[in-house]
Amino acid sequence: MSYLAKILNQSPVIAAVKSISDIQKVPEKINVILILYTDIFYLEKMIDLAVAKDLLVLLHVDLFKGLSRDEYGIKYLAQKTGIDGIVSTKGYLIKAAKKHNLIAVQRLFILDSSAFEKALRIVNDAQPDFIEVLPGLVYPRIAKKLRRRINQPLIAGGMIEKTKDIDDILAAKAIAISTSNKKLWTYRNY
C-alpha cells in the first residue's frame, strides 16, 4: 500500500483548495490537499503553508497557470516546488509524473457508458497510481463495475454536497473523496 493510500485510509477527505485562505481553514484531521486554480507565482506560498501544516500536496496541473503542460513542466514541478503529486485528465502528464516520482492521480469524467469505456482505455495506457472519478455522486453506481476492470485505488470528487454522499461513496469502497466544500472538511465518520 502506498504512502498516500495509508494516509487516506486514516483520513478519507481531500480538501480541494483555491487560495492560501482555504489552506489556513483546512482542519487538522485532513492530511491531503488538492490545489486548484493557481499559478506559478502563488504556488510557492501555498506549498510553504501546506508544508507548515504537514499536509501532503497534490496539484491539479490542468488548471495550473504559468508552466507548460508537458514533461519538462512536470519535471520542474517535481524538482523545484515540493509538491507530492499531480492530478490530471491527461495520460501523458500522468506518465511524466510517474517518471519523475510524483504521485499520479488520473481524473476521469464518467458521464455515460462511452465515457466509462474511454476512461478504462486511458487508465490502461497511463497506469496512474490513483483514479479520481467525477462527478463523485456517480461513483456508488459504477463502483463495482469499475473495480472489476481496474486495480488502482479510487477517489470520488465533484458534486459532493452532504455527509450522506460521503458515506455512500466510502461504503462503495472509494479510498477517499475530494471536495472544495469546507463544511465537508469536518466529516466525522472516520
From TrEMBL:
GO process annotations (BP): glycerol metabolic process; regulation of DNA-templated transcription
A Pfam family annotated for this UniProt entry: G3P_antiterm
Record-linked InterPro entries: Aldolase_TIM (IPR013785), GlpP (IPR006699)
SUPFAM superfamilies the record matches: GlpP-like
Protein name: Glycerol-3-phosphate responsive antiterminator, GlpP
Naturally occurring in which organism (per UniProt): Halanaerobium praevalens (strain ATCC 33744 / DSM 2228 / GSL)
